[in-house]
Design a protein that fits this description.
This protein is mostly beta strands. Helix content is about 0%, strand content about 50%. β3 (about 35-40) and β4 (about 40-50) form a beta hairpin.
Length: about 100
């Protein structure tokens, strides 16, 4: 039987790992897990993020619920102003 180990065969493997958590700051207490779905031939995410009152201007993406640094990127957004503690619904999240 042939060796099917791609690493032993010298093949390259490309693996994209998408972020699984989103937050509006680096604070691990204010992150939500992203759920992914298929929609119109595209993979789309959504999350419900519980946040304290404040103004938020960036989304931070993480691969871990507690990592101190955004590892999936940071995206500038239109300011979201929360007068009191509340939930931000983030939908859709796309890879474009």
């Amino acid at each position: 039987m042939p060796d099917l180990d791609p690493l032993a065969a010298g093949m390259d493997i490309d693996l994209g790992v998408w972020p699984v958590y989103v937050g509006v700051s680096d604070d691990p207490d204010h992150r939500a897990q992203i759920t992914w779905r298929h929609q119109d031939g595209q993979i789309v995410g959504a999350a419900q993020l519980t946040v304290p009152a404040g103004t938020y201007t960036r989304l931070h993406y993480f691969h871990s619920p507690t990592s101190p640094v955004a590892t999936g990127g940071v995206v500038d957004i239109e300011p979201i102003v929360m007068a009191e503690d509340s939930v931000i619904d983030i939908d859709p999240i796309t890879m474009d």
